[in-house]
Amino acid sequence: MLNNLRKRFQHFRRKEAELVQLQQLQADLLTEATLDSSYLALIVGSCAIATFGLLANSAAVIIGAMIIAPLMLPIRGLAFGALQGDIPLFRKGMIAITVGTLLAVAIAFSLGKLVGIPSYDSEVLARSAPTLLDLGIAIVAGGISGYAKVQPKISGSLAGTAIAVALMPPICVIGLGLSQGNWSLSWGATLLYLTNLLGITLACMIAFLFTGYASLRRAHRALLWTLALTAILVVPLGIGFFRLVRQAQLETSLKQALLNRTVTFQRLGLLKIQTNWSMNPPEVYLNVRAQDPITPRQVSLLQAFVEREMQQPFTLVFVVGQVQEIRANDASPVRENKEN
Known about the structure:
Layout: H1 2-32, H2 37-56, H3 59-68, H4 72-84, H5 87-115, H6 122-125, H7 132-150, H8 158-165, H9 168-180, H10 183-210, H11 216-261, E1 269-276, E2 283-290, H12 296-310, E3 315-322, H13 333-339
Parallel strand pairs: 2-3
Antiparallel strand pairs: 1-2
Helix pairs in contact: 1-4, 1-5, 2-3, 2-5, 2-9, 3-8, 4-5, 4-10, 5-9, 7-8, 7-10, 7-11, 9-10, 10-11, 11-12
Protein backbone atom coordinates (compact mmCIF):
# COMPACT_ATOMS: atom_id res chain seq x y z
CA MET A 1 0.00 0.00 0.00
CA LEU A 2 2.84 2.33 0.86
CA ASN A 3 4.48 1.63 -2.50
CA ASN A 4 1.20 2.31 -4.26
CA LEU A 5 0.88 5.69 -2.54
CA ARG A 6 4.49 6.50 -3.39
CA LYS A 7 3.88 5.67 -7.07
CA ARG A 8 0.76 7.79 -7.16
CA PHE A 9 2.63 10.70 -5.57
CA GLN A 10 5.48 10.37 -8.08
CA HIS A 11 2.97 10.22 -10.94
CA PHE A 12 1.29 13.37 -9.60
CA ARG A 13 4.65 15.15 -9.29
CA ARG A 14 5.56 14.17 -12.88
CA LYS A 15 2.21 15.43 -14.21
CA GLU A 16 2.64 18.65 -12.24
CA ALA A 17 6.14 19.13 -13.68
CA GLU A 18 4.84 18.49 -17.20
CA LEU A 19 2.08 21.04 -16.64
CA VAL A 20 4.62 23.61 -15.41
CA GLN A 21 6.81 22.97 -18.48
CA LEU A 22 3.82 23.35 -20.78
CA GLN A 23 2.78 26.61 -19.15
CA GLN A 24 6.37 27.89 -19.35
CA LEU A 25 6.60 27.00 -23.04
CA GLN A 26 3.27 28.70 -23.71
CA ALA A 27 4.41 31.85 -21.88
CA ASP A 28 7.73 31.93 -23.78
CA LEU A 29 6.02 31.51 -27.15
CA LEU A 30 3.50 34.22 -26.25
CA THR A 31 6.39 36.59 -25.51
CA GLU A 32 8.16 35.69 -28.76
CA ALA A 33 4.97 36.22 -30.80
CA THR A 34 4.27 39.67 -29.36
CA LEU A 35 4.44 42.56 -31.82
CA ASP A 36 6.66 45.06 -30.00
CA SER A 37 9.34 47.63 -30.81
CA SER A 38 12.17 45.09 -30.56
CA TYR A 39 10.53 42.80 -33.09
CA LEU A 40 9.88 45.69 -35.50
CA ALA A 41 13.48 46.89 -35.13
CA LEU A 42 14.74 43.42 -36.04
CA ILE A 43 12.40 43.32 -39.05
CA VAL A 44 13.66 46.69 -40.31
CA GLY A 45 17.31 45.81 -39.75
CA SER A 46 17.08 42.33 -41.23
CA CYS A 47 15.14 43.57 -44.27
CA ALA A 48 17.54 46.44 -44.94
CA ILE A 49 20.59 44.15 -44.73
CA ALA A 50 18.98 41.50 -46.93
CA THR A 51 17.83 44.03 -49.53
CA PHE A 52 21.23 45.71 -49.79
CA GLY A 53 22.85 42.27 -50.00
CA LEU A 54 20.51 41.26 -52.81
CA LEU A 55 21.15 44.50 -54.70
CA ALA A 56 24.90 44.07 -54.26
CA ASN A 57 24.62 40.36 -55.17
CA SER A 58 26.55 39.52 -51.99
CA ALA A 59 25.83 36.13 -50.44
CA ALA A 60 27.77 37.00 -47.28
CA VAL A 61 25.62 40.06 -46.56
CA ILE A 62 22.42 38.09 -47.19
CA ILE A 63 23.55 35.40 -44.72
CA GLY A 64 23.99 38.16 -42.14
CA ALA A 65 20.33 39.09 -42.57
CA MET A 66 19.28 35.44 -42.25
CA ILE A 67 20.98 35.09 -38.86
CA ILE A 68 18.76 37.79 -37.35
CA ALA A 69 15.66 35.74 -38.34
CA PRO A 70 12.90 37.68 -36.50
CA LEU A 71 10.07 35.90 -38.34
CA MET A 72 11.08 32.46 -37.03
CA LEU A 73 9.86 33.31 -33.51
CA PRO A 74 6.18 34.16 -34.17
CA ILE A 75 5.90 31.18 -36.56
CA ARG A 76 6.61 28.82 -33.66
CA GLY A 77 3.99 30.62 -31.58
CA LEU A 78 1.52 30.38 -34.45
CA ALA A 79 2.15 26.63 -34.78
CA PHE A 80 1.79 25.94 -31.06
CA GLY A 81 -1.31 28.14 -30.76
CA ALA A 82 -2.96 26.26 -33.63
CA LEU A 83 -2.16 22.88 -32.03
CA GLN A 84 -3.44 23.84 -28.59
CA GLY A 85 -6.43 25.82 -29.78
CA ASP A 86 -4.89 28.82 -27.99
CA ILE A 87 -6.63 31.67 -29.81
CA PRO A 88 -4.65 34.57 -28.19
CA LEU A 89 -1.31 32.94 -29.03
CA PHE A 90 -2.44 32.05 -32.56
CA ARG A 91 -3.73 35.59 -33.13
CA LYS A 92 -0.54 37.22 -31.82
CA GLY A 93 1.61 35.03 -34.04
CA MET A 94 -0.52 35.72 -37.11
CA ILE A 95 -0.50 39.48 -36.51
CA ALA A 96 3.28 39.57 -35.96
CA ILE A 97 3.96 37.56 -39.13
CA THR A 98 1.54 39.63 -41.25
CA VAL A 99 2.82 43.00 -40.03
CA GLY A 100 6.46 41.92 -40.32
CA THR A 101 5.93 40.61 -43.85
CA LEU A 102 4.11 43.71 -45.09
CA LEU A 103 6.66 46.03 -43.46
CA ALA A 104 9.56 44.14 -45.07
CA VAL A 105 7.91 44.21 -48.51
CA ALA A 106 7.36 47.97 -48.17
CA ILE A 107 11.00 48.58 -47.15
CA ALA A 108 12.37 46.45 -49.99
CA PHE A 109 10.03 48.18 -52.46
CA SER A 110 11.22 51.62 -51.29
CA LEU A 111 14.90 50.67 -51.45
CA GLY A 112 14.41 49.16 -54.89
CA LYS A 113 12.83 52.38 -56.13
CA LEU A 114 15.52 54.50 -54.44
CA VAL A 115 18.49 52.57 -55.85
CA GLY A 116 16.90 52.06 -59.26
CA ILE A 117 19.03 49.15 -60.49
CA PRO A 118 17.70 48.22 -63.95
CA SER A 119 18.31 44.47 -63.65
CA TYR A 120 19.02 42.04 -60.83
CA ASP A 121 21.75 39.45 -60.49
CA SER A 122 21.85 35.79 -59.52
CA GLU A 123 21.08 36.21 -55.79
CA VAL A 124 17.71 37.79 -56.62
CA LEU A 125 16.87 35.45 -59.49
CA ALA A 126 17.73 32.37 -57.40
CA ARG A 127 14.80 33.19 -55.09
CA SER A 128 12.21 33.36 -57.84
CA ALA A 129 12.11 29.69 -58.87
CA PRO A 130 11.32 27.48 -55.83
CA THR A 131 11.13 23.70 -56.11
CA LEU A 132 10.27 20.70 -53.94
CA LEU A 133 13.82 20.88 -52.62
CA ASP A 134 12.97 24.20 -50.92
CA LEU A 135 9.96 22.61 -49.23
CA GLY A 136 12.16 19.79 -47.96
CA ILE A 137 14.66 22.30 -46.54
CA ALA A 138 11.87 24.28 -44.85
CA ILE A 139 10.38 21.17 -43.22
CA VAL A 140 13.71 19.91 -41.87
CA ALA A 141 14.77 23.36 -40.63
CA GLY A 142 11.35 24.00 -39.07
CA GLY A 143 11.48 20.67 -37.26
CA ILE A 144 14.88 21.52 -35.79
CA SER A 145 13.62 24.97 -34.78
CA GLY A 146 10.57 23.53 -33.01
CA TYR A 147 12.63 20.85 -31.27
CA ALA A 148 15.21 23.43 -30.21
CA LYS A 149 12.47 25.36 -28.42
CA VAL A 150 11.61 22.45 -26.15
CA GLN A 151 15.23 21.26 -25.82
CA PRO A 152 17.35 24.22 -24.62
CA LYS A 153 20.56 22.21 -25.07
CA ILE A 154 20.33 22.60 -28.86
CA SER A 155 18.90 26.12 -28.91
CA GLY A 156 22.15 27.31 -30.48
CA SER A 157 21.16 25.58 -33.71
CA LEU A 158 18.44 28.17 -34.36
CA ALA A 159 20.85 30.45 -36.23
CA GLY A 160 21.87 27.60 -38.52
CA THR A 161 18.28 26.65 -39.29
CA ALA A 162 17.47 30.31 -39.97
CA ILE A 163 20.29 30.47 -42.52
CA ALA A 164 19.12 27.23 -44.13
CA VAL A 165 15.51 28.24 -44.61
CA ALA A 166 15.98 31.99 -45.28
CA LEU A 167 12.63 33.70 -44.59
CA MET A 168 13.62 37.34 -45.10
CA PRO A 169 15.35 37.29 -48.55
CA PRO A 170 12.26 36.03 -50.44
CA ILE A 171 10.16 38.80 -48.88
CA CYS A 172 12.73 41.35 -50.02
CA VAL A 173 12.69 39.91 -53.54
CA ILE A 174 8.88 40.36 -53.57
CA GLY A 175 9.38 44.08 -52.85
CA LEU A 176 12.20 44.42 -55.38
CA GLY A 177 10.09 42.74 -58.06
CA LEU A 178 7.16 45.05 -57.33
CA SER A 179 9.47 48.09 -57.55
CA GLN A 180 10.22 47.13 -61.17
CA GLY A 181 6.73 45.90 -62.00
CA ASN A 182 8.23 42.44 -62.51
CA TRP A 183 5.23 40.31 -61.55
CA SER A 184 6.92 37.03 -62.48
CA LEU A 185 9.80 37.72 -60.10
CA SER A 186 7.45 38.73 -57.27
CA TRP A 187 5.22 35.70 -57.78
CA GLY A 188 8.17 33.29 -57.68
CA ALA A 189 9.47 34.90 -54.48
CA THR A 190 5.96 34.81 -52.96
CA LEU A 191 5.74 31.09 -53.69
CA LEU A 192 9.13 30.54 -52.03
CA TYR A 193 8.07 32.55 -48.97
CA LEU A 194 4.79 30.64 -48.59
CA THR A 195 6.72 27.38 -49.01
CA ASN A 196 9.09 28.32 -46.20
CA LEU A 197 6.26 29.62 -44.00
CA LEU A 198 4.05 26.55 -44.32
CA GLY A 199 6.98 24.12 -44.21
CA ILE A 200 8.29 25.60 -40.95
CA THR A 201 4.79 25.75 -39.41
CA LEU A 202 4.04 22.14 -40.30
CA ALA A 203 7.39 20.89 -39.02
CA CYS A 204 7.07 22.85 -35.75
CA MET A 205 3.65 21.29 -35.20
CA ILE A 206 5.06 17.80 -35.74
CA ALA A 207 7.99 18.55 -33.39
CA PHE A 208 5.64 19.75 -30.62
CA LEU A 209 3.47 16.66 -31.09
CA PHE A 210 6.36 14.19 -30.96
CA THR A 211 7.86 15.80 -27.86
CA GLY A 212 4.54 15.48 -26.05
CA TYR A 213 3.70 19.18 -25.75
CA ALA A 214 0.44 18.75 -27.67
CA SER A 215 -2.07 15.95 -28.11
CA LEU A 216 -3.12 14.64 -31.51
CA ARG A 217 -6.77 14.55 -30.40
CA ARG A 218 -6.83 18.31 -29.94
CA ALA A 219 -4.39 19.16 -32.75
CA HIS A 220 -5.64 17.00 -35.61
CA ARG A 221 -7.81 19.70 -37.22
CA ALA A 222 -5.05 22.33 -37.31
CA LEU A 223 -2.59 19.72 -38.55
CA LEU A 224 -4.91 18.64 -41.36
CA TRP A 225 -5.44 22.24 -42.48
CA THR A 226 -1.70 22.88 -42.56
CA LEU A 227 -1.10 19.66 -44.50
CA ALA A 228 -3.82 20.61 -47.01
CA LEU A 229 -2.34 24.09 -47.59
CA THR A 230 1.14 22.62 -47.97
CA ALA A 231 -0.17 20.01 -50.42
CA ILE A 232 -1.57 22.80 -52.62
CA LEU A 233 1.96 24.18 -53.00
CA VAL A 234 3.31 20.79 -54.07
CA VAL A 235 1.88 21.25 -57.58
CA PRO A 236 3.80 24.44 -58.57
CA LEU A 237 6.84 23.28 -56.62
CA GLY A 238 6.79 19.95 -58.44
CA ILE A 239 6.60 21.75 -61.78
CA GLY A 240 9.57 23.88 -60.74
CA PHE A 241 11.52 20.79 -59.65
CA PHE A 242 11.02 18.96 -62.94
CA ARG A 243 11.90 22.14 -64.83
CA LEU A 244 15.13 22.35 -62.81
CA VAL A 245 16.00 18.73 -63.67
CA ARG A 246 15.21 19.34 -67.34
CA GLN A 247 17.37 22.45 -67.41
CA ALA A 248 20.30 20.60 -65.83
CA GLN A 249 19.98 17.84 -68.42
CA LEU A 250 19.87 20.37 -71.25
CA GLU A 251 22.94 22.19 -69.96
CA THR A 252 24.89 18.92 -69.75
CA SER A 253 23.82 17.88 -73.27
CA LEU A 254 24.64 21.34 -74.60
CA LYS A 255 28.13 21.30 -73.10
CA GLN A 256 28.86 17.81 -74.46
CA ALA A 257 27.61 18.77 -77.92
CA LEU A 258 29.74 21.90 -78.06
CA LEU A 259 32.90 20.23 -76.78
CA ASN A 260 32.69 16.96 -78.69
CA ARG A 261 30.92 17.77 -81.93
CA THR A 262 32.12 21.20 -83.04
CA VAL A 263 35.40 22.21 -84.66
CA THR A 264 35.34 25.67 -83.08
CA PHE A 265 35.57 24.34 -79.53
CA GLN A 266 38.57 22.21 -80.40
CA ARG A 267 40.55 25.47 -80.49
CA LEU A 268 38.95 27.03 -77.43
CA GLY A 269 39.26 26.52 -73.69
CA LEU A 270 35.81 26.44 -72.06
CA LEU A 271 36.01 27.93 -68.57
CA LYS A 272 32.36 28.21 -67.61
CA ILE A 273 28.91 27.75 -69.06
CA GLN A 274 25.87 29.46 -67.56
CA THR A 275 22.30 29.64 -68.84
CA ASN A 276 19.77 32.38 -68.12
CA TRP A 277 16.50 30.46 -68.33
CA SER A 278 14.39 33.53 -67.54
CA MET A 279 15.00 34.87 -71.05
CA ASN A 280 13.05 33.72 -74.10
CA PRO A 281 14.89 32.11 -75.83
CA PRO A 282 17.32 31.11 -73.02
CA GLU A 283 20.69 32.85 -73.13
CA VAL A 284 23.79 30.64 -72.85
CA TYR A 285 26.88 32.49 -71.62
CA LEU A 286 30.12 30.75 -72.59
CA ASN A 287 33.29 31.93 -70.87
CA VAL A 288 36.17 30.78 -73.09
CA ARG A 289 39.88 31.35 -73.70
CA ALA A 290 41.00 31.78 -77.28
CA GLN A 291 44.13 32.72 -79.18
CA ASP A 292 42.20 33.77 -82.28
CA PRO A 293 39.16 36.07 -82.24
CA ILE A 294 35.68 34.52 -82.53
CA THR A 295 33.61 35.98 -85.35
CA PRO A 296 29.84 36.60 -85.38
CA ARG A 297 29.66 34.10 -88.27
CA GLN A 298 31.07 31.35 -86.05
CA VAL A 299 28.61 32.22 -83.27
CA SER A 300 25.72 32.11 -85.76
CA LEU A 301 26.75 28.67 -87.05
CA LEU A 302 27.18 27.33 -83.52
CA GLN A 303 23.80 28.72 -82.51
CA ALA A 304 22.10 27.02 -85.45
CA PHE A 305 23.88 23.76 -84.57
CA VAL A 306 22.74 23.98 -80.93
CA GLU A 307 19.14 24.64 -81.94
CA ARG A 308 19.17 21.56 -84.19
CA GLU A 309 20.72 19.35 -81.53
CA MET A 310 18.59 20.56 -78.59
CA GLN A 311 15.42 21.02 -80.67
CA GLN A 312 14.73 24.40 -79.10
CA PRO A 313 16.11 27.91 -79.68
CA PHE A 314 19.04 29.31 -77.68
CA THR A 315 21.00 32.55 -77.80
CA LEU A 316 24.76 32.01 -77.50
CA VAL A 317 26.83 34.76 -75.88
CA PHE A 318 30.61 34.32 -75.86
CA VAL A 319 32.69 35.98 -73.16
CA VAL A 320 36.22 35.67 -74.58
CA GLY A 321 39.51 35.99 -72.74
CA GLN A 322 42.36 36.36 -75.22
CA VAL A 323 45.35 34.06 -74.73
CA GLN A 324 48.81 35.18 -75.83
CA GLU A 325 51.84 32.89 -75.69
CA ILE A 326 55.12 34.62 -74.76
CA ARG A 327 58.46 32.78 -74.80
CA ALA A 328 61.94 33.84 -73.75
CA ASN A 329 63.31 33.48 -77.28
CA ASP A 330 60.64 35.90 -78.58
CA ALA A 331 62.55 38.86 -77.11
CA SER A 332 64.19 41.16 -79.68
CA PRO A 333 68.01 41.55 -79.77
CA VAL A 334 67.71 45.28 -79.00
CA ARG A 335 65.72 44.51 -75.89
CA GLU A 336 68.23 41.87 -74.76
CA ASN A 337 71.21 44.27 -75.26
CA LYS A 338 69.51 46.94 -73.15
CA GLU A 339 68.89 44.46 -70.35
CA ASN A 340 72.53 43.26 -70.50
